[in-house]
Amino acid sequence: MQEYDFNLNVFPSSREASLVVAKEIADALSLRSSENSSLVLGLATGSTPVLVYEELVRLHLREHLSFKKAKCFNLDEYLGLEATHPESYQEFMKRNLFSKVDILPENAVVPNGKVPYDEIPAYCENYEAKIKDCGGIDIQVLGIGRSGHIGFNEPGSSVDSSTRLVALDDVTRKDAANDFGGINDVPTHAITMGVGTILAARKIYLLVWGKAKAAILADALQGPIDESVPASFIRNHPDVSIFIDEAAGQMLVGR
């Protein structure tokens, strides 16, 4: 196998990979709890991290993993969606993790998609300030979109970008169309952490599953590191671990 500058972990299935990621997060959380300090998590949505969250819930229920010392900041949220909308990321996180563990409500932070338009810049600055006030993100969980986005940092996003309002790529909106019952109901904009915000995390886990992500994964890991594929920027991070299944890795050269 080709040698990479990052930690690439290939598993037969997404479930096997997700169990390992969940265990590493749980171990870090337990260690911080034993030290009576907080672990700051950057969390992702979509189908990619669902099995990780499922395992974390199991560890909470069956093995007494506590989230009382966790502080969570989500990557993004669709602009215009109420928190209770079934496709909002606030609802996603509540459904898949937050309502099933003992995290304190004030420590489960998801961007607000209903911020008045003229208040968005100040809101985004405040979101960055909240992360910094907690000491920064310890572990950032990421997926990758077929456009190459991380969070909702679409092609053209700069490496030093911060939390902000973004327009969603057509590929991203088409991929979400089934969830919304058609492309016309998919929001056109979102609030997202920036690439710079993500890269400031101490540890990054990138999770990629399935053959539909194989081409963009190869571009991100073996193509140029530039704004055309924002996910490529993580290759310059000092502590990134990439977890993929066999299907996602089928276009990587050297495998």
List the helices and strands and how they pair.
Layout: E1 7-11, H1 14-34, E2 39-43, H2 50-63, E3 70-74, E4 76-78, H3 89-96, E5 108-109, H4 120-133, E6 139-142, E7 164-167, H5 170-180, E8 189-192, H6 195-199, E9 203-208, H7 214-222, E10 240-245
Helix pairs in contact: 1-2
Can you put this structure into words, describing what you see?
The chain is an alpha/beta fold. It has one domain (8-245): Rossmann fold (3-Layer(aba) Sandwich). The protein contains seven helices and ten strands. It has helices at residues 14-34, 50-63, 89-96, 120-133, 170-180, 195-199, 214-222; strands at residues 7-11, 39-43, 70-74, 76-78, 108-109, 139-142, 164-167, 189-192, 203-208, 240-245. The protein has a seven-stranded parallel sheet with strand order 1-10-9-6-2-3-5, covered by helices on one side. The model has no long low-confidence stretch (mean pLDDT 96).
